[in-house]
Design a protein that fits this description.
CATH architecture of the largest domain: 5 Propeller
Helix content: under 10%
CATH superfamily of the largest domain: Glycosyl hydrolase domain, family 43
Number of domains: 2
Structural class: mainly beta
Oligomer: single chain
Shape: elongated
CATH class of the largest domain: Mainly Beta
Number of helices: 2
Length: about 525
């Protein structure tokens, strides 16, 4: 289907080329008659950190600079299924939060006795994780476990608890500081859907209302969006295969509004079962004509990046389907790794590369066949830690063919702001920004020039002319590798006189990776 659509689009574009050429010729003639320059509105960056995740800060007169995605460093398994309530699997539907100086990892544990539970692990450093003794739910005759939530209705198809994601709500009341988006009631259309549970501490949960009366499976998530001042949820939709839909709301505890499709509603589990979301919601992310057929995407694991302005990241799992039986061995089977997508507003996400952000491990390793990113990231010093559910089994491998338990939670380490960089090779390159207006007294870079690379920065006025005293030649050469390098010109970093004026930054680099820039007030203010 996608291949045919892609070819149709190609034919339409090719057929339009003569008309497009005529239109461009007319536009060029019109431009030649006009001598008025086009005004460029400066980008207001204030004192906020800015990331190079797209071309926003790369003007057309830049040369020999390329945006590159930087995969993280794999750190291996940090949590394995070692408890009786985890004796089927762990790893899927995970989320990580820092709260009061403690990292909290919520994960789904599936047990043979009572089905699935939401469990909590805690850590001080992001690497060594413990299962606290919660004492709330009985399992195997004891409450000595780390289970924090289990649905008491065992009649549902998802016995124990549905698929869940937890988030910390800075906008919520103290009694509802933690919120959990949970699927429940499948497949009964009278009760199935998404529910929003609440907790003051992430341990003691109160069951909440049904907020969506159609039922997406997988790790659906929500969060308070600082940029938009609203709650935003990313949910599984089918259009026609798996994509990510988006909905925003003022009150996350009230029903999420959508336009019903009526007779066109999508029933992948049969007309007698609950419908799944489809075209009721706009697409935030999904497969396109460049993806192989058949493939689609699992949970987005979207994050509004807290350490820079206007930066969102998503880490969807592309699902490469094996042929269905009889050509294939099992139904709904295939491989999944983890990609990365970026956005400036959290409304639409795009991939700058189809290469995996977290590739599959070697055959026989815990993450060799299917991986799912946990929602969230936590920081320790100059590093970020992310977590993913890792499996040495394919998506559709029947339980009879599995050696239980399966799955584990693995960690990766990423440099602060390190997801994407503007790279100059050994031959050198120049990156010139559009005009920006800043506040602050100094310029700070997140830069890796290592030992043999180099970077110098010049300031240009809005017309592109050198600002006296702040030329590239006057800039002291930056080398080494640090998340906060202060730019100086003949020993001085003081830019206070230029604050509030439009300037362009000119980075002249060799063998260097530039991750971010920020105008700051004083020492340490760029952290």
């Amino acid at each position: 289907m996608r291949t045919a659509l892609f070819l149709q689009c190609v034919l339409m574009v090719c057929g339009a080329l003569p008309a497009l050429a005529q239109q461009e010729a007319g536009t060029a003639a019109s431009d030649a008659q006009s001598s008025q320059p086009v005004a460029v509105v400066p980008i207001a960056v204030g004192g906020e950190k800015q990331l190079f995740i797209d071309n926003r800060f790369i003007a057309a007169d830049s040369r020999n600079v390329e945006l590159c995605m930087n995969p993280p460093v794999k750190l291996g398994a940090v949590l394995r299924p070692e408890r009786p309530w985890e004796d089927k699997s762990i790893g899927f539907c995970a989320s990580v939060i820092e709260h009061e100086g403690v990292f909290k990892l919520f994960y789904r544990a599936d047990g043979r006795e009572k089905g699935a539970s939401v469990c909590l692990a805690t850590s001080r450093d992001g690497l060594q994780w413990e299962r606290p003794r919660i004492g709330l739910y009985e399992h195997g005759g004891t409450k000595d476990n780390n289970i924090v939530f289990r649905d008491t209705d065992d009649s549902a198809a998802y016995r124990g608890v549905g698929e869940t994601v937890v988030f910390l709500d800075p906008h919520g009341s103290a009694e509802q500081r933690f919120k959990m988006i949970a699927s429940k009631g499948w497949p009964d259309p009278r009760s199935a859907g998404l529910y929003c549970h609440t907790s003051p501490d992430g341990v003691h949960w109160t069951a909440g209302p049904r907020v969506l009366d159609i039922c997406p499976d997988t790790a659906n998530q929500a969060a308070w969006d600082r940029q938009r001042g609203k709650y935003v949820a990313y949910i599984r939709i089918w259009n026609p295969l798996r994509k990510v839909g988006r909905v925003e709301m003022d009150d996350i505890m009230a029903p999420w509004l959508y336009k019903p499709l009526g007779a066109e509603a999508f029933f992948i589990w049969g007309k007698e079962s609950v419908a799944v979301p489809s075209r009721e919601f706009p697409v935030a992310f999904g497969y396109d004509a460049e993806d192989p057929v058949p493939s689609d995407h699992y949970n987005p694991a979207a994050v509004e990046y807290p350490y820079a302005q206007n930066a969102y990241f998503a880490f969807p799992s592309p699902y490469m389907h094996f042929p269905e039986p009889p050509a294939g061995k099992f139904g709904n089977d295939g491989l999944l790794d983890i990609q990365m997508a970026v956005s400036r507003d959290g409304v639409e996400y795009r991939r700058m590369t189809r290469a995996p952000y977290i590739p599959l491990g070697l055959a026989g390793e815990p993450d060799s066949l299917s991986n799912y990113m946990a929602v969230g990231m936590v920081r320790r010093g100059d590093y970020l830690y992310q977590y993913y559910g890792a499996y040495a089994v394919t998506h559709g491998l029947p339980e009879a063919h599995q050696k239980l338990p399966i799955g584990c939670l693995c960690a990766v380490r990423q440099r602060l702001d390190g997801f994407v960089s503007a790279d100059a090779a050994w031959g050198g390159g120049e990156l010139v920004t559009p005009p920006v207006v800043f506040t602050g007294k100094r310029l700070v870079l997140n830069l890796n020039a290592s030992a043999m690379g180099a970077c110098q920065v010049g300031l240009l006025d809005a017309a592109g002319k050198d600002v006296p005293g702040f030329t590239v030649d006057a800039c002291d050469i930056l080398r080494g590798n640090a998340v906060e390098q202060v730019v100086t010109w003949k020993g001085s970093s003081d830019l206070a006189a230029l604050s509030g004026q439009p300037v362009r930054l000119k980075f002249v680099m060799r063998a260097a990776k530039l991750f971010a820039f920020q105008f700051a007030d004083g020492p340490g203010s760029a952290k």
